[in-house]
Prior knowledge:
The structure holds two protein chains of two kinds. Chain A is mainly α. Chain A has a single domain, classed as Orthogonal Bundle (Helix Hairpins). Chain A contains three helices and no strands. Chain A has helices spanning about 1-20, 25-45, 70-100. The model of chain A has no long low-confidence stretch (mean pLDDT about 90). Chain B is built from 21 helices and two strands. A two-stranded antiparallel ribbon of chain B has the order 1-2. Classes of the chains: A mainly alpha, B mainly alpha. The interface of A and B includes residues 32, 111 and 120 of A. Chain A: It comes from Roseibium aestuarii. Chain A: This is Na+/H+ antiporter subunit C. Chain A: It holds the Pfam family Oxidored_q2. Chain A: Its main location: membrane.
Amino acid sequence: METGLSVLIGLFFAVSVYLMLSRHLVRILLGIAILGNAVNLLIFTAGRLTREVPPLIPEHLYTLVTETANPLPQALVLTAIVISFSFFAFLLVLAFRAYQELGTDDANEMRVAEPEDDPLPPQGY
Amino acid sequence: MAGSNAPHVDLSQAMTTAPVSAADWLIVAPSIITILGGTIALMARKNTDAQPKVAMLFLTLLVGANGALLLHVLQKGVVTMVMGNWLPPFGIAFTADALGASLSLIASIVAWCAGLYGAVTIDGTGRRYGFYPFLLLLMTGVSGAFLTGDIFNLYVWFEVLLISSYGLLVLGNDRIQLDGTVKYGILNLIGTNLFLIATGLLYGHFGTLNMADIAMKMRELEAGGSVGPLAAVAALYFLAFAMKAAAFPVNFWLPASYHTPNVAVSAVFAGLLTKVGVYALIRVFVLIMPGARDYFADLIAVVAILTMITGGLGALAQAEVRRVFGYLVIVGIGAMLAGIAVGSLQGVAGAIFYAIHSIIVMTALYLAAGIMQLMGGSTALRKLGGLYGANPYFAGVFLVLGFAVAGLPPFSGFWPKLMLVEASIDAGRTWVAFAILASGFLTTLAIGRVWIYSFWRGGPEGVADGCAPIRLAPAAELSSPALWVPLLLLTGLVIYLGLQPEALLQLVQRGAEGVIDPSAYIRSVFGEP
């Protein structure tokens, strides 16, 4: 089970890196969304895929009796999902605003902050 | 429902039963104060007059709390507080040592200065769109990152400060800011995702996220001589934090974005954000995985050298004051990485000292750039000139900051550079020592040019020296003390630390000892064995 998921995570990473290598913001953002999911799956798998038993303690007992699912990675993944989702939403709006203002979604043509025809610094003193 | 017939449960096996001492609450106070202040400032969003007052009140409280925390740490040694009273390593631990507490204090002083300065430079619109809430929440992230003792929690604080920094960076919505924020935003988010990947793998290996616990297990593992897959984890951590710290070759987001927002925002960013990355590098590579640091020492040294040299050359190639400063931030990052690459006590102490110096001086330089813009109407070197005639005292202050950033005595930049050069020569890394000195030379050239062009010469390009300079009517903001107090305070610190470095030297020495030998840190988390 872990092996299968590892291969899947590897595929996710490959796809996201491929998308992020693009110059177009939309593809970069899709790459980031997939990267976030790849990381979440990775954490989930890193916590070991144990038995599908919820970590509930039976009545009248104080400890777990059988091997159960590891709850910690799920808490971590939940945190990471919330964070990556909100960041993705922000960046999506940001990219749209940048497209509106700059008229392009090609990262190579976004040269407002660092203009290509910048004057050279003064030579000599 | 705990009925009377419920059997007795011994909680002491899972939780600390002793109440948390009042002084230990100081560990979480910085985060709580800033969240509270940020929330109140957010509620007062439309009351643009009250906002700076609320924010300054909470920033003052923050400085006070951090000062008290540092004193507490110096008296008691490393202190720990675990959320929910769970016994470590189960709860999220907040652990304050000399390194974290001193950086947190300096960070809060810098934020205080920027907040006061922002009261002048941020207009009503900027306040309505949340300058002060973002600033306070940024400080939540920064303080949390400096004080947490849990590596996943460190990631969460990174994200808190990152999302606040997005808000600050894009505040104002100019074309140039949108452009800068796109690059800053995407590259930094990828950086934190790499951090999360590394943390996931580390968790998969050790089954714990508590830094002290990992440090302990890591040392057992290294004693057994099998680091194996953890070299890959360490490589991911290095890439992630180098991206955060803007080390070569992943530094390009910094000069693309730091000159775009309001100057008060640039000042906080230049002071704090990259140093959080360096702090995380020290924490992870010196405290948690010293074996990996040894393994990667050569790589870190090469990265440090290239960072310093590209930063210096980049600064020389810029024709705009704030973009020059952006590259000077990168030079400083290289110097701190050099300390980590050397890894000796003096090297790490030098890196911490340099971080503190760099936080103060870079913020002060950006604040000065804002005043130059108000005085000369521009930040382009060709359009500036004659500022010495306008205000010779300000010219003197700028010169002090310029000498400090270049590492010339008798200012604060001299001592950490001396320590770093000495440490790298002792460790046989003469190339690193050479790069530190060469980057100091390049910095002197770059900052000297800024000073000569903006202050020394008679007027902007085209005005011959000796002509009566054309005086712009001084901007109304220039008479406000809120503009000058932060600059003078930080410059005062730069001079004081240059003349009286002894106290800070002892402090950073203690900070470095605390991360190189983690026994005090581990003892603080797990209690006496």
